[in-house]
Write a structure and sequence with these properties.
The chain has 568 residues and is of the alpha/beta class. It is built from 22 helices and 16 strands. Strand 15 and strand 16 form a beta hairpin.
């Protein structure tokens, strides 16, 4: 057993009350059946662990042998009564065929604390679906609030009959809030059962995920009719259901127009949505006052005129869109300009995703950058990854963001495709060192470019400024210290300053906890700045010392720690 597992097992066996979550992920697994079993039995006796998750259960070699390891683990945890969440994710072998699901039955029946059950892309197939259904029927406490069965290959060999058996068992689970059934064969009878769940007066279901579930016009019609009677559902994902045509979408669009619609989040990613359907969608959403999130990623058949029509939604008073995803749609400059124009006076949108649209050029990005000149913009996240961003685009964004205090993340890709010119523009944006006042007025809100730029040459200063923005409320002060009180700096502002005021300046400099890396290791900004301040004008130190301030020893200690090299 590896060291990490041994340490964790020791905490499990002594029932450490601080150990609430255990995630076992490849390759940090026990090595054999005995170690798997020991870990499982330890969890079974534990009364404080609330979450157990197994990720990437896959091996190259003897599948039956390794499946027996997991069975040993599941036999042990069956005694546990404290777990609130149990998850098996990305398992390569069939959990039912290998007997793993069968070993979990006592745990699923008798653990009355269970709130979340998650089988994510871990196949159970039709036999497992039926077993899960009968197991859930046996539970006396119908307490499960979140049920994830994504990518479990249910219903593929029986047209959804087994899925229906499982869904039928959920009718009494009145606390169920999330049901995720992505990438399964739901079947017409399964959709009818989901409709029954939705129309129940006791239904609390808030999120329904039916991505890639072979939903067609007839199944969607059944679901839509039930949604018209439902007041709880807020999030609906119908992505990757290519069989739905304009005829099938029509009832859903009518629902979105209805005053009784309570949906806040709808995802229609990667469907065969065309221009005509888009125009109808825009017309429906123009009268909708509840939807806050719309995802249309991967629908290039909407075409440029359709996306321009979508942009008009952002101009309509009364709409409340906060999140718009138009990624992977081959958008061009015309769409970028239309979005920019629509957002010129928008004060609701917070997230705009435009990733993987390589047809947008500098012209489009310059137009998009103008969004941040709107003083009322609420945009906090802009995703431009996998696009042709260049230095000119970066300069345009850096210029527009000078007075912006909302945008936290400008995602540019991995790594961002910029040269030193583009990074210099962002460096000036984050810390304009031309004067102390301009440093104070720099952008202190931007915290990330979406991905790590640690290995990107020429980004050292940018990384430091972003870190200051992320972790320190006093980032303005620290940027001033870094930009103006390091190395041989000008003392003209302090030459005629009274000693009493100068003492306060030194005190202000000294109160800083942020650290940066120097050639001799980590150093506090305050220590380095104070040293450089006094080194730049030793006579000032003499003036202060005559007042009785005992600072000589502290300055000597700073001198011992500092270097004569530059900070950067």
């Amino acid at each position: 057993m590896n060291t990490n597992t041994e340490s964790t097992l020791e905490r499990i066996n002594r029932n450490d009350p601080n150990l609430k979550e255990l995630i076992l992920a490849y390759p940090y697994f026990p090595r054999d059946a005995d170690e798997w079993g020991e870990l499982g039995w330890g969890i079974g006796r534990n009364t404080h662990i609330e979450t157990v998750e197994l990720d990437f259960i896959s091996w190259i070699g003897d599948e039956n042998k390794h499946a027996s390891f997991v069975r040993s683990f599941c036999q042990g945890i069956c005694q546990n009564r404290s777990l609130q969440r149990f998850a098996l994710k990305f398992c390569d072998f069939d959990l039912f065929d290998k007997g793993i699901l069968q070993e979990l039955v006592p745990f699923l029946v008798h653990n009355q604390c269970l709130r979340v059950l998650d089988f994510y892309f871990s196949p159970i197939e039709s036999g497992g679906a039926r077993l899960l259904g009968s197991t859930l029927e046996r539970r006396t406490n119908k307490s499960i609030e979140k049920f994830v069965l994504s990518g479990t290959e249910m219903g593929l060999d029986d047209e959804g009959e087994s899925v229906n058996a499982l869904l039928t068992s959920l009718k009494k689970y009145t606390h169920l809030k999330t049901l995720e059934l992505e990438t399964n064969e739901i079947g017409q009878v399964g959709c009818n059962t989901i409709s029954t769940l939705l129309t129940s007066t006791s239904s609390k279901l808030q999120k329904l995920d039916l991505r890639d579930s072979a939903i067609d016009n007839y199944k969607l019609a059944s679901l839509t009719s039930s949604l018209a009677k439902n007041t709880a559902l807020q999030e609906l994902d119908l992505g990757n259901n290519f069989s739905i045509t304009a005829t099938g979408w029509a009832p859903l669009l009518s629902l979105l127009r209805s005053p009784s619609c309570n949906l806040k989040n709808i995802s229609l990613n990667e469907n065969n949505i065309d221009y005509d359907m888009t125009v109808a969608l825009v017309a429906s959403l123009a009268d909708n006052h509840t939807l806050t999130k719309l995802s249309l990623c991967g629908n290039p058949s909407i075409t440029t005129p359709g996306f321009v029509a979508i942009s008009t939604l952002l101009q309509i008073q009364g709409t409340h869109l906060e999140h718009l995803d138009l990624g992977e749609n081959d958008l061009d400059d015309d769409v970028a300009v239309a979005l920019s124009n629509s957002l010129a006076n928008n004060c609701t949108l917070k997230t705009l995703i435009l990733n993987d649209n390589p047809s947008i050029t500098t012209t489009g990005f310059v137009a998009l950058s103008a969004i941040f000149q709107n003083p009322d913009t609420q945009l906090t996240f802009l995703d431009l990854t996998e696009n042709n961003i260049n230095d000119d685009s970066a300069i345009a964004f850096a210029t527009s963001l000078i007075n912006n205090d909302k945008l936290n993340t400008l995602s540019l890709g991995t790594p961002p495709p910029l040269t030193s010119t583009g990074w210099a523009a962002f460096s000036r944006l984050l810390c304009n060192a031309s004067s102390i006042n301009n440093t104070y007025l720099s952008n202190h809100t931007l915290k990330s470019f979406g991905s790590s730029i640690r290995c990107v040459p020429g980004t050292e200063k940018v990384r430091t400024y972003l870190e200051l923005n992320r972790i320190d409320k006093r980032c303005k002060k620290h940027k001033i210290l870094l930009a103006h009180f390091m190395g041989r700096f000008s003392m003209e502002h302090f030459a005629d300053m009274k000693v009493e005021l100068l003492v306060h300046v030194l005190a202000w400099i000294s109160k800083s906890g942020f650290k940066f890396k120097s050639r001799k290791g980590n150093c506090r900004i305050s220590q380095s700045a104070l040293f450089h301040f006094i080194r730049s004008e030793p006579s000032l130190f003499g003036r202060i010392d005559k007042t009785g301030s005992n600072v000589k020893g502290g300055v000597r200690r700073l001198a011992d720690r500092e270097t004569d090299g530059k900070v950067w």
